Amino acid sequence: MSAIALLVVGLSALLTGYLVYSRYIARRIYQLDPSFRTPAHVYEDGVDFVPTNKHVLFGHHFTSVAGAAPIVGPAIAVIWGWLPAFLWVVLGTIFAGAVHDFGTLWISVRHRGNSIGTLTEDIVGARARVLFLLLIFFLLLMVNAVFAVIIANLFLVSPGAVLPVWGSLVVALVVGLLIYRTGAGILAPSIGALLVLYGLIWLGQYVPFTLPDLLGLDPTATQLAVAGADPTAAVEAAANDGRRIGWIMILFAYTFVASVLPVWLLLQPRDYVNGHQLFVALGIISLGVLVTNPPMVAPAVNLTLPSDAPSWFPLLFITVACGAISGFHGLVASGTSSKQLDREPDARYVGYGGALGEGALALTSILATTAGFALYAGAEGWHAHYATWASASTGATSAFVNGVGVLAEGIGIPHAVATIFAAVVVISFAATTLDTSVRLQRYIIAELGVEYGIKSIQNRWLATFIAVTSCALLALGLDRGAGGMRLWPLFGTTNQLLAGLSLLILTLFLLRLRRPIWITVIPMGFLLFMTTWAMVLNLLRFVRDSETMLLVVGGAIFALELWLLFEAAVAVRRVLARRRSDGGTESGERAPAD
Q1: Which of 270, 428, 431, 547 could form an S-S bond across to 542 if both were Cys, CB 3.0 to 4.6 Å?
Q2: What is the pTM of this model?
Q3: How far is CA 557 from CA 137, 139, 466, 550, in A?
């Protein structure tokens, strides 16, 4: 199979989905109204509710949802072969993920900009709202912990990426001030920001930065065993643990500040600039594929899986936790993007279009980690990298970075610069997701404070402190940060479960409005079946491997799922009974009122 053919087929399918399927949904199902006053205008406060240019909002939404997950998930999933990953990414994005993102953005706008967890009370009931908020809290806890570990690991292996990543924060602050305080427009500052960023990437190869080991940790028994007769290697491994812990602490200190700042000052401009960077990355990878036309070394379907690899069914649909469909997207859509939507018709561009962008990123991850990585390591090197499930999981980001590096080198970009560029791409998108996710977790904690009458945690400073501290403890509590990726299967399962439940809420709302529900029911049923099956398999594995913490967290999430499904079943019966009794459409279709 030609890598070029795979790229063309995939991108053409995604474009067709936007031009045809999303237009049908916008007109016939969600019935977007250009005269509808969005929450950004009704509740404008200059901090969270800010009417925003749709292109700027697309940048925020796109880069917030397109974190490291659409890169890491497909990079692991190709161990089962490129064909299952390709089909799930393309078809899942068009018919499930983009419908979910578009729908959660729209339903939040129609409910005063409330998050998907909060508006559950209006559609299902008060008890379901609390259950949903708790489920979201667990998901955000894992998102923040996993992404912090991913970023810290990339800083360790790509010290040249440190300068451009942190320098981009200063650039974003300048862009935010220029756009919102001087009226400079958005085009010139954005182009200038990209030029500065790529200058920093070029400079990064000459100014690498390695965090000093300030903790002076002793080697663990595992590190000593791995090092064998070389104590120096064990000491260096322990030093890397110290550096990893240091980076994780720095990252959470940064996210504390970022999540309490007004969205226009850092979050919007940084995401907007990173959105342009992502398009450049997609262009470089695509052009590299077209020029080099690398072979697809990975089998279409891998029939000789390593002994430690699970079956692709149902784990494929959990491993690719983003890039096809993701419950986290619904949290961003209903948590921050809905509060910034200027006009309701913009929801199609921001919601459905943003999901397609992430699908395109997942597609390029498949190409980079199969065809591209094979150019870098050779066929034997590729098979050696994917010889075990453990090596495929821990080496996902390195396979992507090296694959992108060799593809970029094929179009004339020096390899050293190209690998730093690829690392910056992964880190930047993981960091923007981290920024948004901590802000969302602050919202959830404050909402739980309202629910239980705890006024103190409704304060945004204390709520943010609780969010940051809990995530840092989880990230650092697994093998001194080194074991953070052990959370990935549980993160993927919870993420997809949340997507299925969000589609369930959306289905109930459409049912109340007497509109067709098949576009949400089909992906909802598929996801809930797959995630429930995968969760049971994960819980059995946690019992077998004595993973007590993961067993407790996973068991709590599974119990919340079953309880929510019961509440939803009761709500469906209630809606159908009301429809039979009154024969009309329920009120609330036009909420929020002016």
Answers
A1: 547
A2: 0.83
A3: 10, 9, 20, 10
